[in-house]
Queue: 4 jobs
Job 1
Amino acid sequence: MKPDINIVDVAQAAGVSIATVSNVMNGKGRVSVATRQKIEKIIAELGYSPNLTARNLKTKRSDLIGLVVPTMQPGRLQDNPFYWDLLAGVEEGARDRKFHIILAGIDESTETFSFVKERRLDGVIVVGANEGSQAVDRVLEMGLPAVFIDSYLADPKLLQVYLEDRKGSCRATRYLIEQGHRRIALLIGDIPLERIAYYGVLYERWLGYRDALDEAGIAYDPKLMIKLPTSLEGGYQAADRLTEMGDVTAIFSFSDVSAMGLLKRLRELGKGVPRDYSVVGFDNLFMSNYTSPSLTTVAQNILEKGQEAVRMLLDQIDGNPIVKRQVALPVELIVRETTGAPPV
Amino acid sequence: MKPDINIVDVAQAAGVSIATVSNVMNGKGRVSVATRQKIEKIIAELGYSPNLTARNLKTKRSDLIGLVVPTMQPGRLQDNPFYWDLLAGVEEGARDRKFHIILAGIDESTETFSFVKERRLDGVIVVGANEGSQAVDRVLEMGLPAVFIDSYLADPKLLQVYLEDRKGSCRATRYLIEQGHRRIALLIGDIPLERIAYYGVLYERWLGYRDALDEAGIAYDPKLMIKLPTSLEGGYQAADRLTEMGDVTAIFSFSDVSAMGLLKRLRELGKGVPRDYSVVGFDNLFMSNYTSPSLTTVAQNILEKGQEAVRMLLDQIDGNPIVKRQVALPVELIVRETTGAPPV
DNA sequence: TTGAAAGCGCTACCAT
DNA sequence: ATGGTAGCGCTTTCAA
């Protein structure tokens, strides 16, 4: 590590005071063109770069934002190619504005978020916190700029980014109905149905499903709800449940990975898709066009979700006026090969 | 944001000097049990947490490590469910030792790595840098603790983590040969074959393939090398090339995602797997067991790769003696359904 | 066992 | 247009 060169070195080399060097770096104060150029030259020659630690101590900002993802356990996230894009979106947005991302995989239950205070983070982006979770409370009580992704928190003051989940779900269900399906199963996740309202994203999608049913005058049947995780394995197991259901001809799964599990098991069971069952997923992962048959799904732009969140956060940090506190990003039904008319 | 409470506040509340508070926090100096307990009580009551920015300015450490991933372009990484696990491994390892991760998606060509100096990172983990790349040079010239993942750099002093790529590749190829295959295509990536030695991972795997051929006394045929990206789309296109090759009965693809693209297109072309072609991938992604047919592949533990890298880095930062500078993690051939005997 | 005080490198205010 | 200097909150000698 070469001997650190600091602002004093630059000032001496340029024959000016450190205040002037500081002014040049920050574009503050009036500095003559001549001195500015001289200093800039010296900075380049010396390969000087300012010590952000010192600067931050003084300015009380860190130009750092925390990306908080619930329990970064292998098991949980492994099933989410999803998060990577989100991360890329956030990172990219932050980089454009000279911010950096600190990654914090947290353990919901034990985490105190002390690092947020200790590192003087300028703000945080929290992914998938549910109403009443520790994470939300903690963040709020620090009164720190924050944006919540996919969280559906009731408090209207909170900045949030989510999808048109309900609309997307309704559209997917409606499409199945239009194809002639009447008995449509739903893979809703490993939760008790009576508490679904506590699981924002799942709840919205469940509501969308019901919207479509209502439109078509089809009765909602709780027996069609499959309470298994929206994971590969969950989807795999769901296929067995599905085939035991008798009159069901279609299934809407709340994630593409679970839909892939479904496809796998249905094939093993000798069931044709869409001949015997139509299948719809949600996410439009990069590989959803490469399954066989390719997956009909509700597409979201995950990268954009990350970008939008960071944009909102940085605006808040910079004290820009906040136009919209809640942003619902658009979704789109992508019809591919896993859907068709029900068997006669 | 509640008014920041600092070490002075604690000292006053406890009726001691800030030096003593500091000692208590850091377990340094001898402090009487009585004062220690009193101070700890006050700290808890006040909800004080030290300002790491100030601490770092003084100690010249940041307890921050940079995770450097080449060009975080959507296009590139979208195809890598891979990276997420790596990240999880690194984050987890860092967290255990009170370090945090700063994520830096960089643009190989333009990046100056100034943030490394500016933020006084204690070290960096670089993923997938090739010999002679900007990234490597830059990192080295700062003389900063660093670990390179999947980089195959010649300099024996560098800390590196990679796989038993050659061995894994050899084993996979050997398995295909044992099944009776003689003409085995290789999907090696979008690179000129004569420069393959510059692409560490690809080179090693290519060598492994040749090892197996040599063992079996089969001549190496450059015409069997398919120079398409190891991505979904690359695999998809490779299937067309494959079917034009005539006497080829198997293909070994250097990533699972590309193998998935292959499976997709082969099915479209009416080719059976493994009836007409045997297919082997590399990575053992979480979904590789859920393709149809399920994918035979060379498994690596990506999470462990991240953990190992961070362990090596932190040891170096802490000045622990370095036992091994290069670590090759084990791989394992997982035989599933995409491989079998060649058609007669 | 405890405290006083000197910085770490920078920004920003106030002088000049 | 430029410079002197007081901190930001902490760690770490050195003295008491």
Job 2
Amino acid sequence: MATRLSDVAARAGVSVKTVSNVINDYPHITARTRAKVEAAIAALNYIPNVSARSLRKGRSDFIALAIPEMGSPYFAELGAEISRAAKRRGITVLIDQTEGEAAAEQFVLDGMRGQLIDGIIFSPLATAPAKLTSADTGKPLVLLGERPAGGQFDRIAVDSVQASYDATTHLVSLGRRRIAAIGVGGTGTGAVRRKGYRKALKAAGMPHEPALELAAAGYHRLDGATSMRELLALPEPPDAVFCFNDLLALGALRTLADAGLRVPEDVAVVGFDDIEDGRYHSPTLTTISPDKEWLADNAVTLLLDRIAGRAGSTHRDLSVPYRLEIRESTGG
Amino acid sequence: MATRLSDVAARAGVSVKTVSNVINDYPHITARTRAKVEAAIAALNYIPNVSARSLRKGRSDFIALAIPEMGSPYFAELGAEISRAAKRRGITVLIDQTEGEAAAEQFVLDGMRGQLIDGIIFSPLATAPAKLTSADTGKPLVLLGERPAGGQFDRIAVDSVQASYDATTHLVSLGRRRIAAIGVGGTGTGAVRRKGYRKALKAAGMPHEPALELAAAGYHRLDGATSMRELLALPEPPDAVFCFNDLLALGALRTLADAGLRVPEDVAVVGFDDIEDGRYHSPTLTTISPDKEWLADNAVTLLLDRIAGRAGSTHRDLSVPYRLEIRESTGG
DNA sequence: AGGACGGTTTACAACGTTTAACGTGGATGT
DNA sequence: ACATCCACGTTAAACGTTGTAAACCGTCCT
């Protein structure tokens, strides 16, 4: 059914090896031969068999992207960018949803899809990168996100401390005095962004109040809405909220709207990620906007370099450019 | 580096084939042998090589999902559901972004990833399904969306005519008299939903006005915002809008907010898809809510049936259950 | 005791590709 | 006339797995 290399060879009147040479851009081939072969390839609609090729070469030109959930806009947008960046280089991306479960993350790493995958871009949620050993995978790995790579892997992330500092300082500069934070946690994103948040408060001579620092079960709209309700129930509710991602912020905005409070007059809100929803919400959402295209492009480049062995032995740690996008939710 | 079947066989003291038999649940194996082999597999952390297996079997347990863009919430959510449904059956999903370009769609179909893919779930945008021949792929294909399958393929979609009829009728029942539509088009979704829209108007004894039927370049927020501005510029602006998807609706809501109009008092808005954003927007968005989990599950089942040859020669056409979710944007 | 039988295991080839090692005939340059 | 390079061809051997068919082994039957 499917046409093979030998079919092409027969039609072009050359050997199998020559066809293979043409396909793999072997340098010493006459234009005439190449033309014949290419004509045969086109006529027969030949497409190389990926399985056979990767079995033989040990390379597949497939990479994996492991993210918590593709239904979440930030990861969906990131996944789209990474797919695009990879396609530009002739690479196919396989997306794995880990649902933030340690087992699923481990499965992806262990399995590596049965040698099919050349490498992986991994956004860990449950697994601490420090616990990863390169022996776990045997294949190149690029880490995304706040958790430190421990010098074992390449990593690429926004400088969350600085970005959170910027976001909080922006609220301070608006004259806000009770600035809450939603999404605080002990590890990973929740810890790093809290650090920047507290640093900014301290720089402004303001104490950080435990009551104003709320953890979130997840980083979804629902969690943001719930946390915001808790904040509004306080004796002294905040006049500003820094949410550690946009979904939390959108949830918080929802609660504020339900409560009949005005944004930004009564409460100013800042998010993090700059997902498209925030740009169209009423009010539009002030947020930290990382350059996702840059991130995607560099993540893919980093990984491919390592796959090709072009990268040295030292592991790189890249910082994603970002901007504070001031919009309506802080009076932009 | 990677452990192979022969390594496991050596350690277990059996032949390679026996190990293969254990892995593939070949029935005639003594408990003792099976135990030995399984111990060896566990000890060596053996994972089958996907390339070799699929080269030999002609099956890979990979399916492709081709969608216009995964950054779009509806497709992101759908992709997430389909991934989940496939994983439950031990199948891996490979997602292809076609960006709505005919070339990219054709590439996915033609290529089928070089025989790696067992079948494809395809949401066409540029390619008319009628133009597809099964010879194009040689592999099973399940179509998603409004465009008719021409009896050549399995297809699964919401009954868009009926759903649009319901949505429009809901607006009529609120007493609205100038009901606009955004997203109208000559083919596919834009045509089918217009049909239901017009049918509802007719049933209510209302004429359809060309000025109130707006096309949209894409189905994104930006297009919705632009179209809404056009509608507001009319001598007699509408008092209700049916947007052919939620993104258009969210864009329209943005324009209405900018114009200082109240929703639903001045203008009522209905969307289509029930993406999560709409549930948290202010106001929350009334919309047609298809059962995405049902859709995903059945799409995967349909495809796997055909791959396994379990499906008959007649092609099935499934209708996705949906509900009209009445929320704030129509005064819910 | 010899043979048939059924369940269990194994040897071997094949899937389509690339790589390696060599070979060959022609064109080119001296 | 001879070495050199080029552009291919030939053949064989992998890559890791599974299908086919045949070999093995103990048991039961006659």
Job 3
Amino acid sequence: MRIVTWNVNSIRARQERLLALLARHRPDVVCLQELKTAAAGFPAAALAEAGYHAAVHGQKTYNGVAILAREAPAEVATGFGDGGDESQARLVTATVGGLAIASAYVPNGKEVGSEKWAYKLAWLDRLAAWVRRRPPAPPLVLGGDFNIAPDARDVASPEVWAGSVLCAPPARAAWEALLAAGLTDAFRLHHDEGGHYSWWDYRQLGFPRNDGLRIDHVLLAAPLAARCTGAFIDRDERKGKLPSDHAPVVIDLA
DNA sequence: ATGGCCAATTTTATTGGA
């Protein structure tokens, strides 16, 4: 079973690239982030034509997440359902093929110390609490843009980003809390070295210089980590005209 | 070549992204 997560930075701007990605990798499940459109603007018909059902949690202009699947997603839910703020479309969950799938768009946080930074950390606390309280079955696949570079290997220019919202200790502690909740970074099961990134700034020749960060991840519950046969970042997707600033992460489960 | 921000909108500036 092949699962992809990708921050598309507007589903409408990326529709043709998404269809090409589906044809190239033939994934069973895709977690999408930053749709930047309400559900009415989601290209459901074109994706159905390509063979994919969609569970969409859209929002005008900002955020927006979705799960695509060859099999119809069941038990679709949005948000944490914890009584907290649900005004930002950042989490959609569903059951597909005996797996619990979640597509998450973690807040960026703008600047350490800002109001958005506090929102990011609170949102990550809610995410970890949600992971801890959900039942062990079906096992969880949590894919998304985490806006966290877990360690120095995940940053091309660590000194530049050290104090940023992607690398600051509280963000990395929130990542560790997700691991402590029983999840495993699928990519790190198969690659120990640094130099693999999933995001490059559009500005300042970020991609040609490979000045990137690894901030998009697939986290797996233990039974699925044991089944993960491969993981890679589809760096080629960042090339060419009108790319997203993020590259997709692809994982395979036996 | 992988190339000097991009996308959406309350659009000809502003906001948010990371």
Job 4
Amino acid sequence: MAEHQSPVPLRKKPSQARARRTVDFILEAATQILASHGEAALTTNHIAERAGFSIGTLYQYFPNRDAILDTLIERERESSEKHIRDALAQVSRGEVAGTVREIVRILVNSFTRHGRMRNRFALSITRLSAARGGQTRLDHVAGSIVEVWCSTGVGTSRDLSDSEAFVLTRAVLGTLRAAVLEDSRLLKTKAFEEAIVRLILGFLRSSTAV
Amino acid sequence: MAEHQSPVPLRKKPSQARARRTVDFILEAATQILASHGEAALTTNHIAERAGFSIGTLYQYFPNRDAILDTLIERERESSEKHIRDALAQVSRGEVAGTVREIVRILVNSFTRHGRMRNRFALSITRLSAARGGQTRLDHVAGSIVEVWCSTGVGTSRDLSDSEAFVLTRAVLGTLRAAVLEDSRLLKTKAFEEAIVRLILGFLRSSTAV
Amino acid sequence: MAEHQSPVPLRKKPSQARARRTVDFILEAATQILASHGEAALTTNHIAERAGFSIGTLYQYFPNRDAILDTLIERERESSEKHIRDALAQVSRGEVAGTVREIVRILVNSFTRHGRMRNRFALSITRLSAARGGQTRLDHVAGSIVEVWCSTGVGTSRDLSDSEAFVLTRAVLGTLRAAVLEDSRLLKTKAFEEAIVRLILGFLRSSTAV
Amino acid sequence: MAEHQSPVPLRKKPSQARARRTVDFILEAATQILASHGEAALTTNHIAERAGFSIGTLYQYFPNRDAILDTLIERERESSEKHIRDALAQVSRGEVAGTVREIVRILVNSFTRHGRMRNRFALSITRLSAARGGQTRLDHVAGSIVEVWCSTGVGTSRDLSDSEAFVLTRAVLGTLRAAVLEDSRLLKTKAFEEAIVRLILGFLRSSTAV
DNA sequence: GATGAATGAGCCTTCATTCAT
DNA sequence: AATGAATGAAGGCTCATTCAT
């Protein structure tokens, strides 16, 4: 119904440890439901039941259903971002091709690391996030990547323009996203990874060349 | 009782001209609702009301809500595909870079041609289609593109492998999709178009090189 | 909704032969639907469709759905009654036990004569008739039986009192009805027939004795 | 999700006293509606309204409309059975004719004890139960009767065969049922009772004789 | 006469949310 | 703080019936 809604503050600051754990339980329950039964099953009563609380308790920590989803989405985004940042932070800075390949591998991995169940969760989150009309999780990640990317010095000879940064990141992430959404068997393929690497290198070279 | 047929079983074949127009009105109403209020507002009652018919009439032509969505999705896919195919059919086959630029321009245009409202519709359709777990509209389009692409002789020296075709199409479409989704001001930029062209050429060259 | 409704006159006297055939088609369609799909499927549209007419035509011959049911029920009752009367008319009037056995056989047969499908129809009719709160088909039949019965002279030595006539007819018909409703395998059994004969003879003897 | 159990799956086990009372209120409301307006009026909304609860509350305790009917049918059957069993348990075992008369009186009484309204309820229940294709309430009662009957030693000299038991119970119950359905003035008559007694004794004697 | 498109009251059911205990 | 019974707007859908063509 409401398509937009800025992040909703928790109804009650979970200052005590117990409260924080309650929130975690609730979010974990939501995650599991998403993973095992899909979005349609994600009802407040269901969540409360699975979390082992009464529906009343759930509403003591979240003002409404959307707040739960928002929190879920936010946490997932943070987690993704952290994961990628951490990985990128360890990329060895040597020859360009090698560095790019490492980065691609990290990204592919970050889209693959989850089990089947977990993937279902990720898909749900992506959809919910999109339905919310807000930034996609990917968009945030893209920012991080460009940032790290530049600092890595891969784009060497010169910085990427806005357009170039946009195209490069979206091209790569969009490809990975499509592969996940279509549940493509290519995803874990060496050839797939190779193609992406070439996509990037080809772009960088032609850019430089120009 | 159920006379189900493949993708969209109309409950009753609109035999009279009036009936056929009614179906169109219903679909148009659904389209508008999607465009103006989003997926959550797409209720059967809402559609019927907006179409200016009673709910009963709606159910004379569609067995259930999903059938309406299916029809909408199907029509949109056909329309997109036709639009792109037609445009691609007229690409001049000369020097590679020029051809690619023409193709890119067509694609950008196909993502841009709709007004704001219409775009919101397209997004909704895309999401609904994805939620349905079926092929994305893009996937079909991607197929058409690769097909035409090859026949165009742009990939010249050799055909693209599965991975390569996948990566190339998704990279381009994903980039455009992201630009639309984020409502990026880059979308109508010369630099943006240029970057995509380079993305493609870079990929093709590095592929050929290998 | 309406639980009661006195027999509804046809909206239009089917004076022409064609019209009478139309009515027959409609009733036959209703009969078939009842037999093959049950009461829930007996919708006016369904009937019209199966009869090969438009819904509008159906309403040209029946003022409403209930009128169709009423007619169906009435016809079935007449048919049952005629069938039994005809059979009873031919009972040989000799020794009492033999006569009773003949009568029982006729009654059992009248409950059995239909095929499975046809039985399903009979059950539906019975239920609909009962739901209508009116006389059961059986009740009418009971009247005929007592009538014929007395004229047969089986109750010989004296006439049956109201109570006796009631109990005797309802006992026999109730037993048969139960056997049909429960779809009992006893129904076509020799022992079953025999038990009913004894029920009647025992009653008649003890009555006379008193 | 579905935690179905045999006959009547309550959606939620009423853990609090209030909840248990709510369930009773709902069933009582359904009973009254059946008694006063018939089956067609037995809608979930109607029930909830009459019970003084919101429709949501109804669905907290019953998964769907049918579950309410099932519960109603089940309860009624249990009640009937218990009532008859209890009464039969106290039959004095002396001379056969006297015992039979006592039993008949009990049965007549069990069909008479309800007021007019209540009877209408019983009829509805019977019809619904039959429509459900399951055992009729009477069938269960019949079982109890035969059971007690035999233990009473009324059938003395030998046990009744299947056919005999069936015919005897259905004849008696069918007669009573018809009397109730037709709202016969005979029902409370001494002559009526007498006739039934004779029906039974006559049957037993002729059986024994054979 | 016949047709069938259109109607709309009303059914069953869900689920986010509140509040007395 | 926690509980869970209760709420009720709203959604999907059916089907008897009407009426313009």
